[in-house]
Amino acid sequence: MELESSETAEKIHLMESHRLDSFKIWPFTAENNCNIKSMAEAGFYYCGTENDSDSAACFCCGKVLNGWESTDIPIDEHRKHAPQCFFVKIGKFEKDLTVEEFLRVFQASITGGISRKIVKTRIKIRSACHKFRNEFYKKF
Ligand SMILES: [Zn+2]
């Protein structure tokens, strides 16, 4: 079981400019609704892989969406699939946030990130215990 991994050093994509920089590859261009600027504005950063090239995650709630279509409007998709997201609930893009709202979004993203890591770690521990138990009973 490996608990120390790159996950623990997961980059926080709090700033829109950092999210924008994360889109090194993206199947859509500036002419499409779901261009990288609109994606970053709507809270998404790139988290795709070779086999899943259009995955993007929210920096605040962690929601991962893929299967984007050129006509999709990122903030509308975010609202539709993660209405509980604090960033969505505030309903403003980064440039319109007050300092207090920005700090509240930051707090929500950190709290959410920690909760997601706890859930992932619990799953890993449970899986490791299950594996250990099975190996133990095979021996005796
Ligand atoms: Zn979100």
Brief summary of the model shown:
The chain has a single domain (8-139), classed as Inhibitor Of Apoptosis Protein (2mihbC-IAP-1), Chain A (Orthogonal Bundle).
Blueprint of the fold:
Blueprint (H helix, E strand, L loop, with lengths): L15 H7 L13 H6 L2 E3 L9 E3 L5 E2 L8 H8 L4 H5 L8 H41 L1
Antiparallel strand pairs: 1-2, 2-3
The chain binds zinc ion.
Please explain how this structure is put together.
It is a single chain. The chain is mostly helical and 140 residues long. It has one domain: Orthogonal Bundle (Inhibitor Of Apoptosis Protein (2mihbC-IAP-1), Chain A), CATH 1.10.1170. Helix content is 48%, strand content 6%. The longest helix is centred in the last third of the chain and has 41 residues. The two termini are 23 Å apart. The N terminus is likely disordered. The structure holds zinc ion (ZN).
Gyration radius, in Å: 18 Å
Number of strands: 3
- Main sheet, how many strands, which sense, barrel? 3 strands, antiparallel
Low-confidence segments, given as residue ranges, are 1-9
Bound molecules: zinc ion
Class from helix and strand fractions: mainly alpha
Beta-strand content: 5-15%
